[in-house]
Amino acid sequence: ELGEVVNYVMRIVEPLASEKNVSINVDVDEGIFVEGDFDRLVQLLLNLVDNAVKYTFAKEHGPKEIWLRAYAQNNSAMIEVEDTGVGIPEDSLKHIFERFYRVDKARSRKMGGTGLGLAITRFIVEKHGGTISLESEYGTGTILKVKLPLKKVFE
Ligand code: ATP
Ligand code: MG
User: Residue 33 forms beta bridges with which residues?
Assistant: First the structure.
C-alpha cells in the first residue's frame, strides 16, 4: 500500500527536512496497492525525496517546499515528488539517471553522496515493471514521476 511506503519514508526524512527549513506537503490517496518489495519501494522514494530536500535546501532564495503525491490513474499507481529547488539544466536532463552523474561536481562533492541515487531508483522502478520521468526548470524546480503497475485500489 503506497500510503505505508510514504509514511515509512516520511518518518525518516521529515526531521531532516524541517532541520533544513524545507517543508514537505503530502497528498497521498489511500488504498493504492502495487505488487513489489516494500524495502525497495522505500529506497526508491527515499532517494527521490532525499534529492528534493537536498537540492531545495541548496537554493539560496525563494520558497523551500516539496510536494509528495500518490494517486491511481487508469491502471497505474502514480508517485510524484515535486520540489522548488535548484532545478536541472536542460543539457543535463538526458544524463541524470546515469550512474555517478552529478550536475555540479564541486557542489555535489561538498554535499556528500555518490551520484548513484537516481540510477538505483530507475533500476528499482524498472524491476517493478514501471517507468520514471522527469521535468525540470533550471532555477525553479523539478518534478519526478514514477508510474507503477496498479494491483488494486480499495475505496
Ligand atoms: P546520492 O543520491 O548518491 O546521494 P546524488 O544525489 O548526487 O547522490 P542522484 O540522486 O543520482 O545523485 O542525482 C544525480 C544528480 O542529479 C545530482 O547530483 C544532482 O545534480 C541532480 N539532481 C537530482 N535530483 C535533483 C533535484 N530534485 N533537483 C535538482 N537536481 C537534482
Ligand atoms: Mg540523490
Answer: 152
Q: What is the ipTM of this complex?
A: 0.98
- Dmax over Cα atoms in the chain, in whole Å? 48
> Which residue in 62, 44, 55 sits closest to 82, CA to CA?
55
* 76 close to 131: Cβ distance less than 8 angstroms: no
- Cβ atoms of 32 and 58 within 8 Å: the answer is no
Q: Does residue 15 sit in helix, strand or coil?
A: helix
Pocket test for ligand 1, best of 51, 67, 109, 123 (most atoms within 8 A of CB): 51
Q: Which ligand is nearest to the CA of 143?
A: 1
Backbone angles phi, psi at 147, to 5 degrees: -120, 120
Q: Which residues contact 39 (CB under 8 A, 6 or more apart)?
A: none
Q: How far is CA 136 from the centre of its chain?
A: 13
In this prediction the pTM is: 0.96
Element (H, E) at 39: helix 38-57
State pLDDT tens for residues 73-91. Answer: 999 999 999 999 999 999 9
Say if CB 68 and CB 25 are below 8 A apart.
yes
